[in-house]
Amino acid sequence: MATMSRVLLVALAALLFVFGLCHARPVPQQTASLAAQGKVVDGITAIYNFGDSLSDTGNLLREGDVAGMLQHTMGLPYGSAIGGATGRCSDGYLVIDFLAKDLGLPLLKPYLAKGADFTHGVNFAVAGATALDTAVLARRGISVPHTNSSLGVQLQWFKDFMSANAKSPQEIREKLAHSLVMVGEEIGGNDYNYAFVANKPATGGERNLYNVGRMVTAVVEAMTLVPDVVRSVTSAARELLDMGATRLVIPGNFPLGCVPSYMAVVNETDPATYDGNGCLASLNFFAQMHNVLLQQGIRELRASYPSATIAYADYFYAYVQMLRDAGKMGFDKGSLTKACCGAGAGAYNFDMDRMCGAPGALVCARPDERISWDGVHLTQRAYSVMSDLLYHRGFASPAPVEFPRVKS
To answer: Is 146 a catalytic residue?
Structure first.
């Protein structure tokens, strides 16, 4: 019975996962890139990115205003490390930004930024986006409250963009032969979160059999989505490969049991519910369900497209590596699961009613020493470390880019 209670607590935590939609000023112009100077890394001249709030650089802001509790993400302290809020859900840059910089390319402009220079790639990611189309989720009783720009919509944007900027399918193939395509810079997590919300138990009062039943339903619904979510991601990858993509990166899910927002809501006191890294074991197991099935889908893609490089970006174990080597990497070992920006008391500094940017929320003195920015998203420093682990230290395999070797 105790084990079931732990699982149900994890399900309840998932109800309160924050989608972290950011809405702010456009990104400032950059200086000339290496690509503009005729220099490229490993032959890559462009990046095309799909995803959600982990890699959105401004598309959501162009879709419309964000109301309610998310209104506080519109400005500072978001973007405080880079001179002002930019539409990124962090204090600064994201993994996709560090990857672009490493490749000598300009930071990716959001697709909805009309008149932007897309010579070296486009960012199609939208915060709050799902892997499954909203109509598919709606038929299962799951509503998507923030955006309709699912992976399928983003893929159509990509097709429209390529058709408008190439004279033939062959020219598209030639462009993609020199491009890196990120198939969902982590996408699919929102599908599961919306499923939990759709089946959330009644709030307030004593925990009763009705509430327990609703939480069980939430867990089961989320689990049943995993094959469909994975199929959506791999199907999108297949379409991109058919169009001529030769280098793809398909990221897995983060260890959700290490996310401060989940941990704060569960606030479990039983040590048996945590793994060796101090994270909620049951929720991490759920994330790994997604990752295992996704890796199987990637193996099938590799068999069908043997000449393409299809990398699995292991966000799960890259994050775990950050936790394990936190001291060496300059993170505060006493605050690994504590949000830098927030207003909550206790070990996690997270309060759903006083999110980062809300009145009463404070920013920690040294964000560079924290992994979590707002209880959901990472700090610029953590994203920098993640990018290094993924693209320079083997956590994306096989390596999608051959960077010069670095000393360990």
So the answer is: no
Q: Which one of the listed residues 23, 33, 53, 351 is annotated catalytic?
A: 53
Residue 398 lies in a domain: no
Determine, yes or no, domain membership for 388: no
CA–CA gap between residue 348 and residue 59 (Å, rounded):
30
Annotated active-site residue 304? The verdict is no
Q: How far apart are CA 141 and CA 121, in angstroms?
A: 36
**Digit-coded pLDDT (tens) for 297-355:** 999 999 999 999 999 999 999 999 999 999 999 999 999 999 999 987 778 999 878 88
Beta-sheet strands, E only, within 111-157: 121-123
| Cα 73 from Cα 23, distance rounded (Å) | 6
Task: Give the C-alpha separation, 177 to 396, whole Å.
Answer: 20
pLDDT of residue 406: 55
54 and 377 Cβ atoms separated by less than 8 Å: yes
Residue 332 token pair: 């505060």
The parent domain of residue 190 ranges over 2-326
